[in-house]
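Dear colleagues,

As part of the handover before I leave the project, I'm documenting each prediction I ran so the next person doesn't have to rerun anything. This entry is a single chain, and its sequence is reproduced below.
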Amino acid sequence: MASETSNIVFDRAQLRRQRNRAAGGAADHDFLLAYVSDDLVDRLSIVTRSFPAALNLGAHHGLLSRRIRERDNVGVVIDADASLNLLMQCTGPRVLADEEALPFASESLDLVVSGLAFQFVNDLPGTLIQIRKALRPDGLLLATLLGGATLRELRHAWLVAESEVSGGVSPRVAPFADVREVGALLQRAGFALPVVDSETLTVTYDSPLALMRELKKMGAANALSGRHRHPVTRHLLARACEVYIDTFATSDGRIPATFELITMTAWAPHESQQKPLRPGSAQHRLADALGTTEHSTGEKPDQVGNSKRRD
């Protein structure tokens, strides 16, 4: 993810090529998208209002859309993706569109969802502003993207291996966002009632190569603009695998891969929404009302660990 003033982080054309090449087998490697889709549908199920016009932005092959169409409170769901090969697998209304340039009129949508697409957007603030403008007042944004702890083991392995073998490092794993940054971006984009939370999912593989192969088949191989264009040598790849195994392998010989899932919920402003109190305006302390003594508990953790196995 990048701010307005930073350089281009992702080669979007390369990302489209990778996703188009991987489209044929995408459904066989969508475990992460399936997990996220289940979670987003669960979150949507507790919302009582209806959404006549919805958009799945970065729709991949339409898995999330198919799940959302089963909801009684959701009407038409439009799939939008920049990969033509993936978009052709979607089953509903489809629009070939990039997440950074939305072709939707102002106040034309009631709901925008996105599963694992925003982490590859260069101008996420700009995308969020476009979404907020496309939503009708009191419209909902519900999206999950990968967070900063994602693939931390793979990042470490490549860093050590390249330092030893090449005497320097090149960007190989994307610089994903963190929870606090995402919350601030929602506020800057003009959303109301923003809520951001994160969950850490740990998946295990037979080997580092098995993980790398799956990332490629997911269309999520290295698409960083600053990547080296020359092929990885066998020696460098072997050393990266050795570092991964030596540092992170579990007692049964498998290797873990971390995926941090950051979910954002936010609303387009509407006069009916509850307004937050001005800081310091409270007339009574909650501790007094409860008859308790107030104690500082420090920073609240924002991650919950889960484990999965990939064979």
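The beta strands are 51-57, 74-81, 94-96, 109-115, 135-146, 192-205, 255-267, 305-309. The chain has one domain: 12-270+302-309.

All the best with the project,
I.
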